[in-house]
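Aim 2 progress update. The chain analyzed this quarter is reproduced below.
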Amino acid sequence: MTEKATWKGLLPMRNDVNVKVNLEAEDTLAVRLKSLEVKADWTEGSVRETLERQTRAILDKASLLEGGLALIEVDGASNAVLLRSPKPSEGKFVQVVLRNGNSIELEAHGGSVHLARENYERLLGVLTGLFA
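Predicted structure tokens:
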């Protein structure tokens, strides 16, 4: 199941940000998230400063994901940041890759991530808000 910026009116539609959501399942209370990709066509200001701001914001809101996230790697040559759940359990972990200040990709490895609908909607809001 793939959603593209539909969110059923809970978040404003943005023409300047593309969102792709891959859900394994959903109901009114929760979702099972496989991947989420947020991209903008532009970057405002310094790419390094944008990546730092985005990283801090995601780490501050990491409690939306069970187990949270930790900074794993910063690659200045390719303008990329890697965040991952601290300790993969049972082969399952969440990975977030930020690139060039205009791309955020979240992937669940080893199985989908179970999120309460409220946390899923907050996560979408946080990630799309990073391109304001």
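Residues 2-129 form one domain. Strands lie at 2-3, 17-26, 30-40, 70-75, 80-84, 93-99, 103-109, 113-116. These observations will guide the mutagenesis experiments scheduled for the next reporting period.
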